[in-house]
Amino acid sequence: MASLRTLVPVLALVFVLFSFCEAKDILVGGSENAWKIPSNSSDSLNQWAMKKRFKVGDFLIWKYDGKVDSVLQVTKENYESCNTSKPIKEYKDGNNTKMELDKSGPFYFISGAAGHCQKGQKLQVVVMSEKHWDHDNPPVGSPTQATAPAPAKTNANPAHAQRGGCFLALASLLGVAFAFAFAFV
After folding, report:
1. Phi and psi at residue 108, in whole multiples of 5°?
2. What gap in Å lies between CA 59 and CA 18, rounded to an integer?
3. Which range (38-47, 59-68, 128-137) has the least confidence?
4. Helix segments in 62-157, DSSP class H
5. Which distant-in-sequence residues (6+ apart) come within 8 Å of 29 by Cβ?
6. From CA 158, how far away is CA 57, in angstroms rounded?
7. How confident is the model over 112-171, as pLDDT tens digits?
């Protein structure tokens, strides 16, 4: 009976830790149709992004009318100048736009609709590396002032490496819990 009392809290801990290891789907702006020209500067998507923590492996999801707008992933220079002519990637699928944040560092997005970027329809997201992820402290600073750590030099996909590390840690913890619980049977 003592082993069951030990096992239940350990399993609960494992499930809580597991929830922190999983990548998340993040709706841009926190609501549908947030991908639009902001009504004022305090309503900008960058204000929303400053309050969020983005991790390698998270997915950004945009909800918008694909007939009249698009999302362009661009360089910092094209973000600042609202240059739509040379995007890194272009998304036109409206309610199905889903983009993986596959490395640490800044990501820049602007609207593909004429004149929208100049009116503030743009987004900068800073993805923190796993070693800089701090669950206890809220994000601080503006996205334009934030500096991200350089991505690790590796050939492996960092999103998969992060998930693999979490699974390995959780599997080890679970193994220890079962060994401890059944050692007293």
Report:
1. -120, 135
2. 18
3. 128-137
4. 76-81
5. 35, 45, 48
6. 8
7. 999 999 999 999 999 998 765 555 444 544 444 444 444 444 444 444 444 445 555 556
Instruction: From 181, 157, 140, 144, select the one nearest 11 (Cα to Cα).
Output: 181
Which two tokens mark 22?
Answer: 């999983």
* Inter-residue contact 162 to 130 (CB < 8 Å): yes
Give the predicted TM-score (pTM) of the model: 0.64
CA distance 62 to 33: 8
- Look up residue 25 and give its two tokens: 């789907």
The residue among 153, 137, 165, 180 whose CA lies nearest residue 11 is 180
d(CA 111, CA 90): 10
Q: How far apart are CA 105 and CA 5, in angstroms?
A: 44
Question: How many CB atoms neighbour CB 112 within 10 A?
Answer: 19
